[in-house]
Amino acid sequence: MIAASLVPLFFLLTFFRQNVILTLAVIVGLIHVYVATNSSAEYLIQDLWFTLDREVLLSIPMFMFAGVIMSRGSIAARLVRVMTALTSPLPGGLGVGTILALAMFSSISGSGIVTMMAIGGLMYPALVKNGYGVHYSLGVLASGGTLGIIIPPSILMILYGFSTEVSVTDMFRAGWGPGLLMVVVLSVYTLIRHRNLPTTPIDFRELGSALKHGVTAIMMPVILLTGIYTGYFTVTEAAALSLFYALVVEVLIHRELGPRQIYEIGIETIKLLGSLMPLLAFANSFNVILDYEGVPQALLQWAQTWIDSGWMLLIAVNLLLLVAGALMDESSAILILAPLLAPLGTAYGFDPVHFGIIVIVNLQIGYVMPPVAINVIIAAAIFKQSFGTVCRAVIPFIGLMLLVLFLTITFPQLSLYFAGR
């Protein structure tokens, strides 16, 4: 159990904001070379290779590439135009249209960060100009951008399925319940907060024109998700289709991007993968060692000694995940913690898919929970506001997200109904 003793060291170094990849690499290397019996650096290299040699992981770079293409092209702008045309008669309609555009773009990008950057760049000036205020505008874009975490396809769901052997397709299906609930909660809050703003009668000519020019953007999630849920193609094949569709639409149909821009987007995607793939490889090797050392079994025995019920487990898990999400990036949290927590959920009678969705919603909140708060950091940079200003702006939205988390935990069928379980 010497390897297990290094787990607190990992979390201690993470707490002091050390690089997660470097920390994992050093700890895993030390275990393989000096601690584990019958192991060596050669076994570490094999572990890394076997981890990345999985078909489902091919979907991650393709979803990321497609998401960046769409954020650079005109698909995001066309979705925004359709949604704002539909919601213009509502008080706070521009805010609701922004939320719907974030949700729609989430369903084709797979990334919360890409979603916020694509829609936020378009909508932040419009929201402020139309009387929604800086704080609301920052808060709704930073928090609404996290819809890409729970509305499928979601890269975090792919990582969770990879780490725990839970069906990624079932996770995608189950994400729709909390995802749609989050859209409703944010929209109702927007309508109440801005009920006194002037409204604009619906312009059917503008709506028709928006639909005509936005049909290619609207059809993408329909084709993508229908294919996944009917079993016509796998998650990896869906990712390939999304990349092909994005290239055809933005390069050949809309002609928004050329070879030079595609090359730059490719380089940007490779840089993003350069931080994710090493993390995934070392995290999986770390979890293999922990499993070999019996850490999950020891954790389960400890939990059964001190935790009397499923609700007590959920309280402990939720607190752990909220803290982890606030202190480290969510990919790191899910790759390190999911393999340890999933067996606990199963042992206490939770459906594996429902438990997975609880984990995902928790980590979604981590995207706007200081001090790490990736979406807050990016929002501060994009919208040229201080980190503290954006932190204050997301406080009411964190409360709304916690409400959705509570409802997701309390009503399992909110997730499981869509997964057919």
The biggest sheet, with number of strands, parallel, antiparallel or mixed sense and barrel status, is: none
Helical fraction? over 70%
Total helical segments: 22
Mean pLDDT: 81
Can you tell me about this structure?
The chain is mainly alpha-helical. It has one domain (2-419). The protein has helices at residues 2-15, 20-35, 41-52, 59-72, 75-87, 93-109, 112-129, 134-144, 147-150, 155-164, 168-174, 176-193, 204-229, 235-253, 259-292, 295-306, 310-327, 330-347, 352-366, 374-382, 387-410, 413-419. α7 (112-129) packs antiparallel against α8 (134-144) and α7 (112-129) crosses α20 (374-382). The two termini are 38 Å apart.
Structure, briefly:
The chain has helices at residues 2-15, 20-35, 41-52, 59-72, 75-87, 93-109, 112-129, 134-144, 147-150, 155-164, 168-174, 176-193, 204-229, 235-253, 259-292, 295-306, 310-327, 330-347, 352-366, 374-382, 387-410, 413-419.
